[in-house]
Design a protein that fits this description.
With about 675 residues, this protein is an alpha+beta fold. Helix content is about 35%, strand content about 20%.
């Protein structure tokens, strides 16, 4: 480690760039998030003490640049092209025939094509210019000839390298900036909560973000990049497109891992259909597959017609938006009493799934979109995201002859309690703490996967138990009587026994999960776990001051107050007592930090263990004082490997980290047995 601040700053920037690549490009980080943050903190400290050492490509400079007054025009040295479409296997074959005919005229008979198939990510095309390895300018595609300078916003995207090693003097990288579906959904939920307009789709939200003048906005919205091509390059030559992609990946650019090289049209068609099938399971939106000829000499010979290269084509998937009729608007009561509107639609097929219901976010959003019952609307279904109503259909220009959608009901649709709209709150609420609509949401949440994970209890069974009067609060699950269950429709001996066993098993869920499961506003899975680690017992947490709660990672001032207020509410206090009397965990097992016989030891789990789930193994290691991290480094004490281990096992072997199987781990956890 260098003592000279200037040299140390350089060293840190190199390390940080390397770890960025491990994380964003290879999806295989070598260090934990807190170690990464420590590097960044150290660099920030050096730069604060020596402002003259700050460089524009420093990772500390991603945020905080001043807003620009307008977006400057940028002329692309090489135009950014678009793509012709194919919508069927026949159209794809016709494309290949056109290429063959064109090459035959050029005197090339029977060319051998290797194709590169890339997911066509639905975002926006951008160009990144590097000079001597430093990111100097980023631009949108614009009309292909002239785009806009959006360097200030692109800089905020963590997966875009600000500097690259062994770079040629000039390098232009092209790719697609996009917003992942989970990020998009979270952003829209956040905006709905704040009473802001929601974005129509991930593409619009990425496009709207990238053209902002103030980079602070872009920094708050999680954008990502897939690099898919080189533009102007001075001092680097490749024979194949795929070699360029490999080079990009090796130099720190995120290149999609699903990209494949294929040798025949049939294989390409099969690949396109396969992605079409699987598109819903990706966590970003793709609207097709881009098929490119790999050989760059053939690409050059094939050339461009208009704006479309002859050497590439976009296989387009059927759309995920559809027009249908809005039949009515209904209201759901949320976990915390919020009245949430949803649309009942004339059933319609969207991207292979029948959609009958769609979210409408909140009352402001309905008014803003000016939807009317009986009119046609556009519905969007993207991946696993809940379908949403985007807008009235384009031809529905005159809305005047239908009444606007009524405001939220004055009485709760589930329990009839008069609704209220608290000052500054976006949602109208049912104030009844024991409203069955609200309880249903809370109980569904309690039994769900990330929470108490009670197998066999889903929304249907919970509704049944509530209707039969067997369950009102979460503690009632632990009082269920097998006789009463057997009387329910559809419940036999086997299923009753299985469910009771699953309920019993849920008593072993660790305290952090319990905190998440009982339904405290603002407490998600991660915050639940962090609060448990910070306070260790429910009593310590309930009696904490807001300042102490705020000291928990990820908890802000307002959140700390909400958490304490909710935890000390009389219904919650009663629920906690009731659950505790049934043996639910309200304390973190195991030794305080730094103690226990595995204290100081770090474990990485990979593959499937024969008996223990990954979570059980993690909990037992934590209970013995050890730590579990996600990536192998020289500092890892043990890698625990089960069946089908990933690259982590290979890495452990390379770094000579000891590898354990399940019996080996159990032995270490409990040496006496
Ligand atoms: S290549 C050949 N590769 O699709 C020149 N484009 O319709 C075209 N896109 O503007 C660019 N993923 O926004 C290429 N893997 C990919 C792509 C991709 C998405 C977008 C890009 C472009 C549009 C062309």
């Amino acid at each position: 480690m260098s003592a000279d601040p200037s040299a140390r700053a350089e060293e840190l920037r190199r390390h940080i760039a390397y770890h960025n690549q491990r994380y964003y490009v290879f999806d295989d980080p070598e260090i934990a998030d807190d170690e990464y943050d420590a590097l960044l903190d150290e660099l920030r400290a050096i730069e604060a003490a020596h402002p003259e050492l700050v460089t524009p490509d420093s990772p500390t400079q991603r945020v905080g640049a001043a807003p620009v007054s307008s977006l400057e025009k940028v002329t692309h040295e090489l135009p950014m092209l678009s793509l012709a479409n194919a919508r069927s296997a026949d159209e794809l074959r016709a494309w290949v025939d056109r290429m063959r005919n064109h090459l035959a005229r050029e005197g090339i008979e029977d060319p051998e094509f290797t194709y590169v198939c890339e997911p066509k990510v639905d975002g926006l095309a951008i160009s990144l210019r590097y000079e001597d390895g430093v990111f100097v300018r980023g631009a949108t595609r614009g009309n292909g000839e002239i785009g806009e300078d959006v360097t200030h916003n692109l800089r905020t995207i963590p997966s875009i390298p600000l500097r690259i090693a062994d770079a040629p003097p000039v390098l232009e990288v092209r790719g697609e900036v996009y917003m992942s579906l989970p990020d998009f959904q979270a952003l829209n939920e956040r905006r709905a909560e704040q009473g802001l307009s929601t974005f129509m789709n991930p593409r619009n939200s990425a496009a709207g973000t990238i053209r902002q003048l103030d980079p602070k906005l872009a920094a708050e919205r999680p954008l990502s990049l897939w690099a898919y091509a080189l533009g102007v390059v001075d001092g680097l030559r490749f024979a194949r497109h795929s070699e360029g992609l490999d080079w990009l990946r090796e130099h720190g650019f995120p290149v999609n891992r699903d990209i494949v090289k294929l040798d025949s049209e049939e294989a390409v068609v099969a690949q396109c259909l396969d992605w079409q099938e699987r598109r819903g399971s990706l966590d970003f939106e793709i609207d097709g597959v881009v098929v490119k000829v790999d050989d760059l000499e053939l690409q050059r010979r094939l050339g461009v017609v208009g704006r479309d290269p002859r050497w590439a084509i976009a296989w387009k998937f059927p759309p995920t938006t559809k027009v249908t009729t809005l039949k009515s608007v209904e209201w759901n009561v949320g976990k915390f009493g919020d009245l949430r509107p949803f649309a009942v639609l004339e059933p319609v097929q969207v991207g292979g799934v029948t959609v009958k219901l769609a979210t409408l976010h909140n009352e402001e959003d309905i008014a803003r979109k000016d939807l009317r019952v009986g009119e046609e609307v556009i519905v969007l279904r993207a991946g696993d995201v809940i379908p949403q109503v985007v807008s009235p259909a384009p031809h529905v220009a005159e809305q005047a002859n239908r009444p606007p959608i009524p405001r939220p009901p004055d009485l709760c649709p589930r329990c009839g309690t008069p609704t209220v709209k608290p000052e500054g709150h976006i949602f109208t609420m049912c104030p009844n703490r024991v409203c069955p609509g609200r309880s249903w949401q809370l109980l569904k949440h309690f039994v769900s996967r990330g929470a108490m994970d009670i197998d066999g209890l889903g929304e249907k069974q919970v509704a049944q138990l509530m209707e039969a009067g067997l369950v009102r609060t979460a503690a009632d699950f632990y009082r269920l009587d097998p006789e009463a269950l057997l009387e329910l429709e559809g419940w036999g001996e086997i299923s009753v026994e299985r469910i009771l066993k699953a309920i019993e098993t849920s008593k072993t869920r660790p305290f952090g999960r319990v905190l998440f499961a009982i339904g405290i506003e603002e407490v998600g899975e991660v915050t639940g776990r962090n609060l448990a680690q910070q306070f260790r017992t429910i009593d310590a947490l309930m009696n904490a001051t807001p300042e102490q709660v705020e000291a928990t990672p990820g908890v802000g001032e307002k959140m700390a107050h909400t958490i304490l207020e909710q935890l000390n509410d009389e219904h919650m206090v009663a629920l906690v007592e009731d659950l505790r009397s049934h043996g639910i965990q309200f304390e973190l097992e195991g030794p305080p930090p730094g103690e226990g016989h595995l204290a100081g030891q770090t474990f990485v789990l990979t593959g499937t263990l024969p008996d223990l789930t990954r979570e059980e193994a993690t909990e037992r290691i934590l209970a013995a004082g050890g730590r579990v991290t996600s990536s192998v480094s020289k500092k890892t004490s043990y890698v625990v490997a089960g069946a089908s281990p990933g690259s982590k096992l290979a890495k452990a072997e390379r770094l000579e980290v000891p590898v354990l199987d399940e019996p080996g781990l159990l032995e270490l956890l409990d040496p006496a047995s």
